[in-house]
Amino acid sequence: MxxxxxxxxxxxxVVVPLVSAPLxxxxxxxPRIVWLLCLAASWTSLAIAIELLDQVLSGGTISYAxxxxxAPWGIEYRIDAVNAYVILIVTGIASVVMPYANxxxxxxxxxxxxxxxxxxxxxxxxxLLGMTITGDxxxxxxxxxxxxxxxxxxxxxxxxxxxxxSAFQYLVMGTIGGTFILVGIGFLYVVTGTLxxxxxxxxxxxxxxxxxxxxxxxFLVVGIxxxxxxxxxxxxxxxxxxxxxxxxxxxxxxxATKVAVYALLRFVFTVIGPVIAYQDLPFGEIAKVLAxxxxxxxxxxxxxxxxxxxxxxxxxxxxIGYILLGIGLATVxxxxxxxxxxxxxxxxxxxxFMAVGxxxxxxxxxxxxxxxxxxxxxxxSFGAFVIAGLSLIGVPLTAGFVSKWYxxxxxxxxxxxxxxxxxxxxxxxxxIYIWRVVEIAWFGSPSTRAxxxxxxxxxxxxxxxxxxxxxLYFGTHTGLTVGVANLAARTLAEGLx
Length: 497
What we know:
This protein has 21 helices and two strands. The chain is an all-alpha fold. Strands 1-2 form a two-stranded antiparallel ribbon.
């Protein structure tokens, strides 16, 4: 089937989840069919992503002109090693989260709102894939808004009333971020007269000294930085992750910030160019400073959280610091480490939040006091949390170790040994907050909620353990991830030479 539609796969990558969203509402009377539709859409998207990555690896960059209108006059979908890699991350997570959603959503979302939840989830997937695949700067903003609006709705569906407050806080900050991005794109259009990214990359070297360009770049960095929860623009993230439904948290945490990082990489290295970003402007130094602050602050704050989901949210701020640090180094090794951690962190955080969702399924709480002793009552669920936590720390033979090892190497390669020490220090801080959960949940006397708990159903455990085992597999079999990440890094770093 894919071979017949091979020429239209870039468009289908966005169309499949987009068409699924309204169908979820049309078929609202049959929730089971709605879930099966979303499951089929996510698996189809994954199959398309795998085929697109294979085409890129074997034949190079793919250019798809929407409606037959050639770029730069028409809208172009452009796929190279960088976004093919990110598309695989997003669709891979979606294809694992969707089976998990069947029982988790039924437990946490009122029955009459389940079809709406799935419709928003499909729209979120559409927006993230569209942001990643488009070669048009304005369409990045359009798809960003599609994903953001759907995320606001997903977060607000949490049963805790604080979910509404969290969604509203994200709405306000997300709107500010989106406005900054739109203004930045507008500045680029003013100085070039085009919105096609490849065309922008060719025209911007002629106007490198214009303050309009520098201002536009600053707006883009701040706007995208807010979307990717870069320190100190991360204030929306802890509550959003803490009070959203478990399925929404797992999907958003594993995908949304990764796509925002991709958008930053694309604008910095492909559109603006590293010469302007790192030589004319101090982007590299600023990125390294904010990365270190995020890494240290996020890890320290995570240690003192009583809500496990908030703890993992602040941990995400720290992990984004790792990714940003590799970008700030502006070397092939640094970019390889960042691209690796995009993939590995998606596996780690997806597994952790799904494991926490398993615990929540039985206890109806993610507070440490309520999870006291839960490890002995739900060994498979908590075992998944422990292994994913080891990967977050960066223990050898796990995926998290691989990307941190490359980041240490990248820091030493440019003589920045203090950064290598900070990377190791961040892992030590991660040991503290992960061990804090292990100590309470395994060695503590069972709380009232934990004493009544039984193991999570297989419908939740199997998808969770798929991601857990993926953390172990890609921690020992690094050929695919390192190879593709290095190819993506070299594609981005062409302007560095």
